């Protein structure tokens, strides 16, 4: 296995990034490795296995690095991890994925919880049941910080709390100028810190993580990934009866006009003297592969990229090599009609 620390800037600690075949060899069964890195950012993120299909099996968890927020709150309710969930193991489903991409998930989970109705399943082994995730009680007038994390394999969510708005204060590891939203659109790997004020009538409310089928495989639980928020003093333990806001199914990011860094970030003005178009594509060569400019990376577990650099070895032809200290501006276009997340490592 190996463990990647998603979004962590590994300045001078590139070997701690946890990407097997790139910054390290995989950790063999029975062996161990201690990762050490310096937290130079603050906010919310997550860690996950970067080996084979392990993170789809649940080898993942939240990271919280304490620091200031751009709006006040009373209580930090901690991470809210959202994920899709497959009843069969990811390894047993690989033959489907390699032929045409990830198959539909069976369910979605909020911090590992949800219910399941066997009427949507073809499995004779289905037992159903489960329970909704219940948030700590809301106290009227208080403001609560929730750290939203999408740790899915193939699912985009719209997150909302019936009867309440959200104040978004951070996108990934970037504190932003607060803005108000009725829901947050969160793609795979993304994180948003939001503040919710308990300013509605004392009752029980559905917390929704609606699966967007525009870019995710059709999930029978798409509208049934729900948690429960109860106000202090509410005696009933019955499910909420609240209604959500009607929103068109889409997989767009939050509006760029809303994602304004609280502390301005300046970069060198692009000159576009050396421009390379980068296009995302798909190829089927006995298996399903993503490509950049027609090239799909070939990772060698026993010969990591970092080791090639240390040993001054030539890079394979399927590597896109940038020479420091060049400033690179990427304009990435997908002509596929489907969304796909990208993020930088190291």
TrEMBL record:
UniProt-listed InterPro entries: Cu-oxidase-like_N, Cu-oxidase_2nd, Cu-oxidase_fam, Cupredoxin
Isomerase is among the record's keywords: no
MF (Gene Ontology): copper ion binding; hydroquinone:oxygen oxidoreductase activity
Plastocyanin-like domain segment(s): 1-68, 79-233
Pfam family, one: Cu-oxidase
The protein's Enzyme Commission number: 1.10.3.2
Keywords: Copper, Glycoprotein, Metal-binding, Oxidoreductase, Repeat
Family assignment from sequence similarity: Belongs to the multicopper oxidase family.
Protein name: Laccase-like multicopper oxidase
Lineage: Eukaryota, Fungi, Dikarya, Ascomycota, Pezizomycotina
Gene: mco
